[in-house]
Amino acid sequence: YPDERGNIKKKIILKVSDYRSAIIQGKFLAKKGLWVSEYRIESGLNCGGHAFATDGFLMGPILQQFKENKGNLISETYSILVKSLHHKNAIVPRTVLPIKISAQGGVGTAEEHQFLIDHYQIDSVGWGSPFLLVPEATTVDDATITKLSEAKEKDLYLSNISPLGVPFHNLKGNTKDEEKERLIAKNRPGSSCPKKFVALNKDYTDKGICTASRQYQNLKINDLKQRDLPKQEYLSLYHKIIEKSCTCVGLGTSALLKYNLDTKKEGIGVSVCPGPNMAYFSKVLSLKEMVDYIYGISKNISRADRPNMFIKELQVYIQYIKDKIEAHDGVLDVKQQRYYHKFINNLKEGVSYYHTILGQKNQNYFEIAKQKITNDFKDGLQKLDQVLARVNQLAIQ
Asked: How far apart are CA 209 and CA 232, in angstroms?
């Protein structure tokens, strides 16, 4: 809780995907007398780890909303905080408490970094995936660093391997997935589940089990066999069961290997979850080299053909929505069709917003690449029209 001067010893940083979620959660915590000191906005899909897609809302328009409504966010949550602190007979600070706004997700150049700070007036910008190639900053074993440095766009994909049921960024050929495939080949799919950190499913047992575990997958596959389904439908559902990976173990194994610690219980399979941005960084760096690059002191660390961060986010969203639509096997109901129309229209509105930003006379960023960015957005709009046509083609139940 804050003291009279507004000092808070342990501050809360809340990661959010949009302004609506920020103000809802900020108010919820304020009712408990807790102040959110920083709202960290992360791209829904152009990020690492688990991915929480928006309904087609792109990062630029989301940041614009925070820029325009920061004062409201502070005043509305602070008034609730004061009432709560009074109710708790706790100390009420003499002045309104400040907040910070930060952003992360796919940033890859000093120019993008500075644009976010200057244009959206945010306090800081986060970089994630590129630091997987900085041994001083992250703990990654040598073999995985090599795989990461060699990874191209085709090697980085949004998967369904997470036992939590949330889309998860993955690196093709990681050793945990290779371990999983060997078990499948032996007709023994699933992990032994040594940690049980996400043993949450109770479909078959009173005590939770993990959907990546051998126990769960055997039970689920036996269930599937009883349904007497057509071969293709059976194989599709079977694949969805066995693709789950023991990430809670795999994500920690890299540190064990790096420091030559015992892996007898966990095994040596490593999971890693870089964002799409990883494709554009291809060499191991010192911390100084990475920091110099972030602040524009040194150049030529990322690939020259790397797309602008806003373009990349649009591309990832287009692929995401295409995959979602095709997963319906050619049939949509009215509600689904409306959802995809809304999703695609939100993406188009985002592109229109970027065109406005790039066209501003006082906009001095991305001058060298402006024509390429404009052409990439135009290409994105054409692809969105194709996706929309596909939605309209599908039969309505």
From this structure: 28
